[in-house]
Amino acid sequence: MLMSRADVAMYAAKHTDAGFLFYDPKTDPHTQQRLQLSSDLRHALERNEFVLHYQPQINIESNCIIGVEALIRWNHPEHGMIFPDQFIPFAENTGLINPITDWVIRTAIMQCKTWQMAGTELRIAINVTAHSFQDPLFVDKLATLLCGEGTCLAPERIEIEITENILMAEIEHGAKVIGRLRDLGVSVAIDDFGTGYSSLAYLKKLPIHSVKIDKSFVLNMAEDDNDAVIVRATIDLAHNLGYLVVAEGVENRDSLDLLAVLGCDLAQGYHISHALPADALILWIKNSSWVSDEVAV
Ligand code: C2E
Ligand code: CA
Ligand code: CA
Question: Of 8, 21, 97, 264, which is the most exposed, with the fewest CB atoms less than 10 Å away?
Fold first, then answer.
């Protein structure tokens, strides 16, 4: 046990600059609890335990809701609602991420079609990890789903979110996939922008639609001048490259006002709404002050 725990600590230490780390059961993939979770995760899809929640995005200038981001949750029979940070990295390491992403895309597109048929025109943003982005069939599967099961969804209704680190890790492959998505009419957003090491020279060549400023810069931007400077610079830079800018993690009125002054295009965060189940979202839209004629409910 000593050797195996030392090994776990060494593995974790290699991912930090510290040089050494004490054993922490939280990073141990072999604990009974994690092994159990991994086995449960394998069955979660067939047992229909995943759900998507949807967090609204508003246009800052018009104050209208223009779309939503689909965020996965795992409704575990014993542990209750589990958030994605607790199982997505796990799913990536165990090869379960591709079927989960397929499920997310299928469910999000079906939901968007349902809203469309009910007269609610919303754009939906879907998170995709490196594994799924590297799936050679990714774009074809998406195209099939857009026009499957009797109804077609306009491709502009879908936005794929990938983090800048995924893109930078395999820039040539990434550029090809983004190009194919653009040909299909599906747009791409760079997620968590500012946390990675994007090469701007590369970024400007990519047919990206928008960048999402990471919430770590947005959360305290109204109080922290340094954060505000980073947000301002990112907005200017992205606009100069022709991209739309989304700020995530907007938790208060002051941040939203400041973003408006800085010319940010879209906002998402608890100040507007948390992520909601599909039915609750429609109720929220009906009663919300953020809505105008742009969305017909
Ligand atoms: P993300 O893509 O950066 O998603 C935004 C996260 O910030 C969400 O957490 C959201 O609930 C949270 N958030 C939104 N507004 C605020 C705010 O005002 N303040 C704060 N503090 N947080 C806010 P969530 O749902 O726990 O998702 C965490 C991460 O899990 C996501 O980060 C994304 O990377 C990943 N994820 C979520 N759904 C999926 C999915 O369907 N597939 C994949 N591959 N990853 C997903
Ligand atoms: Ca995202
Ligand atoms: Ca993000």
Answer: 21
